[in-house]
Amino acid sequence: MLDAFTVLGLGLSDGQVYAALVVAPQSTAEELAEHCGLTLEQCREALDRLAEQGMATRAPVDRERYLSVAPDVAIGTLIGHREAELRSARAEMHRLMDAFREASRYTDPAHSVEVLTGGEAIAQRLEHLIESSQYQIRGFDCPPYVQDPTVEQPRQRAKLKSGVRIRTVFDKEAIAWPGRLEQEILTGVEDGEEARVRPVLPMKMMMADDKMAIIPISVGDSVLDAAYVIHPSALLQALDALFEAEWERAVPLQTVLGDGEGPGPDADHLKLIGLLAAGLTDESIARSLGWSARTTQRRLQGLMRELGATTRFQAGMAARERGWL
């Protein structure tokens, strides 16, 4: 355990005194010095340092005695400081690697594409991609997923608030993922994210500005523990053009955000119109909205009657004529 303290930046004598204080609270400096094999001066200096770092404090009644701060708080704080230092160092490493590749890409094309392996390495690079973005983040979102896709993305929300534009094209199966539309996607749209949907996407991808793209490597319905990182090159320019082409063809998801107030369709009908326009099947609509198949059919039939339509195409045309799309 004492070795772990040194890894966290705590001196050997400080770790000894803290560990002794944990098992023997209300100890005096003299008692701790004897227990740890230190001189009284060494022990008092260690206690002073522990107090400065918020790991020990004097007893409230007898000020000559000491108490340890709970290990989960004291050690957790040390771990938090070290993690912050490591994140800063990692960010600087990525910044320097970006500069290195930019300087090298004209003489060594191999630096244009990088292969990452391991979930932690991929997660770290995605974090770097988001944090380093300056004006826009673009992405293709489609199954399969390694993590629960309904979980909110605080880093992206923070970027939105800082003025970074975020545009995402969702595969229709991403929209149909149970609970995702209401719990995560529409929340992002309300925060300012621009979202559209296509029946099928060519890949999963995230791109920061015009500097970097990350493409998870997948085979069939499985995501491998690897990803391509594309740096400035002709390939990255092609991915830029591919995204913009898919974005132009996609249906805006903002059409499913009605509040049902005033003239026009109610909230459920507006959601149905948007999802129908996005190309979702009846089954996918039911899953995305958490409805039963019977409820979905009943509401679809009600929408068709209101629009005076007998086919989905007619429903779409009628909705567009009324200004609902």
From TrEMBL:
Pfam families: TrmB (PF01978)
Gene3D superfamilies, alphabetized: Winged helix-like DNA-binding domain superfamily/Winged helix DNA-binding domain
Organism field: Kitasatospora phosalacinea
Limits of the HTH luxR-type domain: 262-319
Protein name: HTH luxR-type domain-containing protein
Transmembrane feature ranges: none
GO BP: any one term: regulation of DNA-templated transcription
GO molecular function: DNA binding
